[in-house]
Amino acid sequence: MRIGVVTFPGSLDDRDAARAVRAVGAEAVALWHADRTLRDVDAVILPGGFSYGDYLRCGAIARFAPVMEELVPAAQGGLPVLGICNGFQILCESHLLPGALIRNDHRKFVCIDQKLRVENTSTAWTSDLELGSHIRIPLKNGEGGFVADVPTLERLEGDGRIVFRYAGKNPNGSYRAIAGITNEHGNVVGLMPHPEHAIEEGFGPSTDGLAFFTSVLSRVAA
Amino acid sequence: MGRIVVDVMLKPEILDPQGQAVAGALPRLGFEGITDVRQGKRFVLTVDGVVTDQHLARAREAAETLLSNPVIEDVVAVTAEGDA
Asked: For residues B65 and B41, is the Cβ–Cβ distance under 8 A?
C-alpha cells in the first residue's frame, strides 16, 4: 500500500501526514509539487500548511502546480484523496470539492482541540469511524470558514456529503458548521481539522485521527 | 509598455472579515458616516507594447481562471489603463 503525500513550497504538515501513513503500516511516498507524476500511489494526501505563502488566495496557486495536473484527473477517476486544512483549500480551488474557505469570521487564527460530529462513514477516508460519534482532533487555521451558495449547501446536505460538522461553538464561522465534505463518489474528502496530528498517545488530544488512515487502507485493499 | 487593470471583489453575499475590521477602525479615527466597507483586490498586468483586444481577452481569461475564484469572487472590471 503506497500513499503519496504532496509537498508544495510552504507545506508544513507533510511530514506528520507521512508519519501517520507509516503508523498504520503503509508506505509514505513523497510527491513533489513540480513533478508531473503520482508515482503509482494508491491514494494521495494534500497536507496542511501555507502553500505559496497563501498568496492570492489559500490554495489558489498550488491548484495549478504540475503535480495537480496529474492529481485532478486521477481524483475524478476515483483515486482516494484527502485534503487537510490547506489541502482542503486546494481541493476547493481545484473544483474537486465545492465551496471555498475564507478568513475566520472573528479574524483570529485558531489553534484548538476541536470536537467534530461524524456524519458520513461511507467515504474512502472515514469508513472506520462510527456514524454519529464525536471525535476530537486539532484545528489550526486563519482561513477556515467554509462558504458556498445556498443551492450548493442544500445539495451537500441532501446528498449526505457533509462528512464532519463542528460540535459545540462554531470555531470559524463556517456555514452550517461544516468542517469537512466529500465529492459525489466519496473518494475525495477535505476537512479543516488535522487527523494526522492525533494518531499517537501522548501527542495531541486523542488517537481519533488514526481511523482516517486505516479507512483508506481498507478501501484500497477492497 | 501597456497596463491592464483587473479589479476583483468578494461577492456581496460572502462575509468580508477584512472589510469589517477596516469598518470598525474608521470611526475610531474620526471617519464617521461610513456604514460598510468591502475590501477587494486590484491586479495591474503589464504587457509589451500597447494593450490590444487580444491582450484584454487573455487578461479576462486569466482573471476568471487564476486571479479570482468564481465561487466567492466577481471580476468587476478588466480595463486598459488610461481607458477609465
From this structure: no
In chain A the domains, ranked by start, together with CATH numbers, are 2-221 (3.40.50.880)
Counted across chains A and B, CB pairs separated by less than 8 A come out at 39
What CATH number does the domain containing B55 carry? 3.30.1280.10
Instruction: Return the residue matching grid coordinates 504532496.
Output: A6
Contacts of residue A149 in chain B, CB cutoff 8 Å? 13, 71
Number of domains, chain B: 1
Task: Give the catalytic positions of A in this structure.
Answer: 85, 194, 196
Q: What is the pLDDT of residues A145-170, one digit of tens each?
A: 999 999 999 999 999 999 999 999 99
Residue B75 DSSP symbol? E
Contact B18 A103 (CB under 8 A): yes
Beta bridge partners of A178: A165
Domain housing B60: 2-80
Residue B57 CB partners (closer than 8 Å, separation 6+): none
Predicted ipTM of the assembly: 0.85
Per-residue pLDDT reduced to its tens digit, A74-86:
999 999 999 999 9
Instruction: Tell me which chain B residues have a C-beta less than 8 angstroms from the C-beta of A103.
Output: 17-18
